[in-house]
């Protein structure tokens, strides 16, 4: 099934919190993630903070802005407690309902991305609980995630603006585990709770994806129409998926319809893989690694780059060691290393080469639409404004689709 090329953006940090994108939300606590935030606030204060944040962070005007940039889709990360059935966390299904109404008014589509799982599928702060990765080992929680996916399909499957549902975000696999270095980079608050933490095996993940596909499509469960995509993340190893869902003839088995492969490709990850921290190094890596990779894997599935951005260490003026910030204890630059013109050339260059690489696939979602970190007045955050698409557009770093025509 052919899909229309996607020019999209993520609405991260709206319904799934990331402390570095809105540090003020965590004021008065030592919590680094969403799991521990309600343990350090009274229920009344927690509820007030969360509801105020959700109401103010994204609203109708943001959908109008995204449309005015020439974009056509949003990827919305949602938590496993979206339906409000996992105390003490507060559900957010009403916010997603509003998003669908706004999307339909402004002609945008929505990719629902299940971004977290109980006891986490990756151990990252954005997986809900830092330093813990045990979800795949807990059969009851695996089943719970399947029921969340089913309920999302039942609720939104017939909405005009639904592009698709992404099964689970960034499962941390045996490939990514050593580089992600979860147990060191994301220290567990409770070592006992983290006991048994480890990577997800690809055989298990593939079986889970097939199960989730059928549960989403099955009339008795999700009943997701075939014109809505089922999206799966590559587990940080895109080459694992050439034989996935294939029949004996090597073609996609007829039972699998409208399936999309999502890969997340960041320059900070490229740096961790040895990409030189130079303008030429980035350009060479994108053209000779990313572009042919997207092109080759598009022979097997439609491929979207569900997360990427312009962020890189050169723009920060300091080696960020894979995107670690002042919140991770990294020392950020105190003064700009580049002139505004040099910075514009840097970001325009990496924007051009990455957009060209993604054009070999079926589209992209920039990470992220916005962040609330004050990168101007808060020491150490130089270069982090490149995560914010609105700031990139305002500084002439990113060519909007309407501006590319």
UniProtKB/TrEMBL annotation:
Pfam families: Cellulase
Membrane topology value: Single-pass type II membrane protein
GO MF entries: beta-glucosidase activity
GO biological process: cell wall organization; glucan catabolic process
Cell wall biogenesis/degradation found in the keyword field: yes
Any single GO CC term annotated in Swiss-Prot or TrEMBL for this entry: cell surface
Protein name: Exo-1,3-beta-glucanase D
